[in-house]
Amino acid sequence: MGEDLRPVLEGSVALVNLAGRSVSCRYTKRNADAILASRTETTKALGAALAGCSSPPPVWINSSTGTIYRDARDRPQDEGSGELGAGFSVAVARAWEHELYDAPVPVRRIALRTAIVLGPGGGALNPLINLARIGLGGAQGDGDQVFSWVHIDDVHGAVRHLVDHPQISGPVNLATPHPVTNAQLMAAVRRHLGRPVGVPLPAWTLAAGARIIRTEEELVLKSRWVHPAVLLRTGYAFRHPHLDDALAAVAAQTPRGLLPVQLG
């Protein structure tokens, strides 16, 4: 990022940075380097630009990920008591947030630890929708892993909420307060977007399939139980708190047939 970012930041109401290469790929060295650099270098460049502003925006909301927490099936992970995990995805998230908090700028900073985002056209759900449409939309693995999610309308609503509440800073979990298990997720996907019955997929088939479409099975098998304690405590009302309502909205704006899937 060689261009001068100061003119677009000077006097702004807020800086919201959601940049980052897709993680739907195999974690080869080349892809891993690109995933890390797209997050840390962008954040570092924004920090340097803010430091050079005479009138910087009062709040900097920088994307992070709910994947920063450990694989959790025993209890929800909130901003205060959540336990960070280990592995490549967690290391990327830690480095991403470090660049945000290490920037020498006198502005309020929020790391937005976002769950899987649902929205028109399927988006992150496209691989699961395709499975449900060809009859393979049963539970994946043991089906008990927790799936934390948020509708795109609540991404917009939560960002507005955070801008308008100057007392909020630090990590903020962006996920509905009503997560589901993978088995419940796939049943809902079949109900709204696929066939009524779906064949379950054990973990070994997911590992093989992930290699074929060049992605990581962690994206399906890790249990992400992300609880939005800060948003709830500060009065944010989710527009789509429950999965059936969210998937009904997604289905109304998603075409029939197999959907495009990014291959990494």
Quick overview of this protein structure:
This protein has 264 residues and is of the alpha/beta class. The protein is built from ten helices and eight strands. β2, α3 and β3 form a beta-alpha-beta unit.
Fold blueprint:
Blueprint: H1 6-9, E1 15-17, H2 29-51, E2 59-65, H3 88-102, E3 108-114, E4 116-118, H4 126-133, E5 146-147, E6 149-151, H5 152-164, E7 170-174, E8 180-181, H6 182-193, H7 203-212, H8 218-221, H9 229-233, H10 243-251
Parallel strand pairs: 1-2, 2-3, 3-7, 4-6
Antiparallel strand pairs: 5-8
Helix pairs in contact: 2-3, 4-6, 6-10
Describe, in plain words, how this protein is organized in 3D.
This protein has 264 residues and is α/β, with parallel strands linked by helices. It has one domain: Rossmann fold (3-Layer(aba) Sandwich). It has 10 helices and 8 strands. The strands form 3 sheets. Strands 1-2-3-7 form a 4-stranded parallel beta sheet, sandwiched between helices. Strand 1 (15-17), helix 2 and strand 2 form a beta-alpha-beta unit. The radius of gyration is 19 Å and the shape is globular. The two termini are 23 Å apart.
